[in-house]
Write a structure and sequence with these properties.
Helices cover 44% and strands 25% of the residues. The chain is an alpha+beta fold and 192 residues long.
Amino acid sequence: MSEFVQSQEQHVQGNTSATQQVVVHRTAQYGQKAAGFWIRFWAYTVDILVLASIGMLLIKPIFRLLSLELNNPEWYAPFTIITAVIFYVYFVLMTKLCSQTVGKMIFGIRVISKDGEKLKWGTVIFREWIGRLISIIPLNIPYLVVAFTPKKQGVHDFIADTLVVHEAVYDLKEKVTYENAIAKELHEPNVF
């Protein structure tokens, strides 16, 4: 995560006496803005369209050439298994190699590790495979968590300690700390 830090100190006197000096430390931090529910929804929709296109342009013609059944409604049908594998491989590889899928690229958002390090294979597999399975099973309701959390994290983001952020949009967060000059002098050791 990229951060820009600016420090500015101000000396403020609360009263006119010298014993009431307070030092104000203002620190401006620019952090990447979290991607909200709707932009992530539209990016996911683009990804589903990409995956559906792959299924229609590559998998269905191969099944027709080999005279394999396409309309088997059971979950363990060969067509269903192959499309599920492509789905998960797409999300895992794109997230690991590019930190974003095609949909995220179009909308200018990316997946980052919460601690700012490069995404690891274990993190990506846990987020994109296990986290998505957990989120999909109860009618996609866990995806709605994104709309209500402060850092716009879904259940799969919480599981893998990841964030989805805008690539070029930053939020200004100002941190203000107050320090009493007398208290600081009392905490400093006397050296004779």
